[in-house]
Design goal:
Helix content: 25-40%
Number of helices: 4
Radius of gyration: 18 Å
Largest sheet: 4 strands, mixed
Shape: globular
Strand order of the largest sheet: 1-4-2-3
Length: 170
């Protein structure tokens, strides 16, 4: 058992060194701060570092822009770094301050299901209903393309309602 624990520690350290990662500071307040965060699955010569700050007075963070993949990668980076930190791993960035979350929920990607006859929009709705049912304070919720797959006006109204509900839940 001791050898296994040592092997895990050395593996974490080697991974951290390979990715030029830092030890995240675990904070008691609900603020998340990542500076020059680099997704570890993107080649170091291609990755674009991102800064992410959320929490405190900023209860929701909306990322918008053209379809070039950066928004989804940023969401995935935030979620991955939270999970890495909560499992005792280093995170590839210049600085990381992260709270402990009770749960992390994500609706990222196209989960269309032919077997269940769900459209892209319907599959997102099924996921969002479940997230809204389970989430509460000290939870991180990551949603990609909220309100996509339906009429833009209706999708925007739905996105606003979902975001308001999440903020109200803390």
């Amino acid at each position: 058992q001791t050898m296994i624990q040592l092997d895990v520690c050395f593996a974490k350290a080697a991974w951290g060194r390979r990715h030029k990662a830092v030890c995240p500071v675990i904070v008691e307040q609900d603020t998340l701060l990542l500076q020059a965060a680099r997704h570890p699955l993107i080649a170091s010569e291609e990755v674009v570092p991102v800064d992410i700050t959320c929490g405190g007075e900023i209860r929701a963070l909306i990322i918008t822009g053209p379809n070039t993949g950066g928004k989804t990668v940023t969401l995935k980076t935030a979620g991955l770094f939270v999970m890495l930190a909560q499992t005792g791993m280093f995170v590839p960035c210049a600085k990381a301050e992260l709270p402990i979350f009770n749960a992390v929920f994500a609706d990222i990607g196209d989960e269309q299901s032919i077997e269940q006859s769900l459209s892209t929009f319907s599959s997102h709705m099924v996921n969002l209903v479940e997230i809204l049912r389970k989430t509460g304070q000290h939870c991180l919720v990551l949603v990609d393309e909220l309100g996509a797959g339906t009429d833009p006006v209706e999708g925007a109204a739905l996105a606003i309602a979902v975001l308001q509900s999440l903020v109200e839940k803390g």
